[in-house]
Prior knowledge:
heterodimer, A: 4 helices, globular, B: disordered N terminus
Amino acid sequence: MSSPNNGPSSLHIALMLASGLVLLFLATGDAGAANPKIPRLANGKPDFSGIWQTTSAADYDLEPHSNRKDAPPGAGIVEGHYLPYLPAALEQKKKNFAARDTLDPALKGYTLGVPRGIYYPEPFQIFQRKQDLTLVHQFGHSVRTIHTDETDHPKDPYDWWLGDSRAHWEGDTLVVDVKHFNDKTWFDRAGNYHSDALHVVEKWAFIDANTVEYKATVEDPKVFSKPWNLSVILHRHREKDFQLIEDYRFTLDYDDAYPPKPNKP
Amino acid sequence: MNTSRSALVSGLAISVMLTAAPSLYAADETKKPDAPAAKPAQPATKPLKLGGPGIEQERSFPKIVSGKWTGPKTADGQPDVQGHWSNTIANHNNFTDPQGGILNDPNPNRVAKGPREERAPSRVSDPADGQVPFQPWALDKVKDFQAHFHDPVKPEYIEPLARCAPGGIPKSLFWHGYEISQYPGYVLFQFNSGTRIIHLDGKPHLPDNIKLWNGDSRGHWEGNTLVVDVTNQNGKALFGRSGEFISENGHIQERYIFSNDGDRYTYEAVLSDPTVYTRPFTVTVPARKWTAKDQPNGWHFEVEPANYTGKVALKEPILDQYERVCAENNGGFGLVAAEEPKK
Lengths: 265, 343
């Protein structure tokens, strides 16, 4: 006959179960451990393939702002709330803001640059292979390649709208170094801007299979007194038959000229 | 950093420079109107060199037939045709006489072209006369465009590509080199002006009132052949500087027939449009792959060696192709519009 004292009591069992759960939780919560729920490539790296879009109001203004005629209110997406402008650059930002209805490059349908293309409220699709990720943005239909093939920035670079993107993996986080930008893009429609000295370090990480946390550290010694950070969440499009639809809106200005049509009698 | 350099690397800028150069040269020579025509710099029958830097590389090309694929495959089972590709006969100057130069060029290249039969065949492979079977009104429009291409007195005489609009179908395949990459469910074409996502995922076409420069593409593989159905075109892209076009009622059925050695493919497309043509017709475009064995050049293979920092020795160098943004559009029309000076 077994005595209750010889075996584990129900309390012991409960404690063991609880500690097991704690261990399980620790294991899955550990940043170094593989998250089994996220999609992966054959080489084990997280697979960001899919169509993504932000629900944030970041594109209206990265900084906290009340509602305006042309924008809903928003708490902003910048760590510390405000961009650390150098004094002269702040004056330029104010000028940009005052003339945003005509100067915002996005209104012309131009390539949005980095990081604006990521949190602009239109979808973009990621095509991923072992050696690279290619981002096709619906807006302006710009195409950006992020290289994950152990290459570094070119030795004799040009300036590019989308910069030059070289990445490596830190665990399941894709870390992207982006530089060699031109100075023609803005960060948002509130006139926040940068120079060609812009340097962006992005961190892409899954929260779950359909949600990605996108973080960026932005540095530009010609415009800001110190680097600053932003963060948005990207959601996967899962609507039936959802797809990108090309958006070359900069061609709309000459819509009347094409295509050839029969002469009117 | 110098921002004008980024504008210079764009394909359009390069195409303008390359096509302008012979014209300027010819203009220098035309001092005496009565002087005999300049001797051709090279005999027109000299064989064109495959792999050379020019846009015209061959006058005839092998026929590749649809059949089994025996080459390498991607992880999801597609024939692996990834890499840099370009057509082998000429650019978009002239659709039906690809090596015949720009029609009505006021400053034609002084190098004699030789007889028609020594130049590459028309891209129209059916009907046999090599001409697009246009309805009369549409042919009038094409001729009108050809007459005014060098004298664009109305906006419609400026080819859309010069405004950085996408090249459309089929012109994107014979303007500059381009890159093909493959993913489960997709084939991606990256052109210098525009991108095409070919869906292999079985989704239906977009609703028919959505009109696009590059159309809406659904494809599948049949052995060595990528079969693509293209609808939803906006009809605005021209097939070349010779002005041929399809309307927004058009339908294009494409076959990309790849050789099993992975070196070439033949593009065959049937274009139908009851509002513009009298019958469907076939367009044929030969293409070849460019690899690390080839010299990079400004037409077909616009790459640079990547700055590889990995520890593993590579069999072939990694080649970078930088962004495909039509910078001219973002800065104004063509090379003539001055950008706002830097503050």
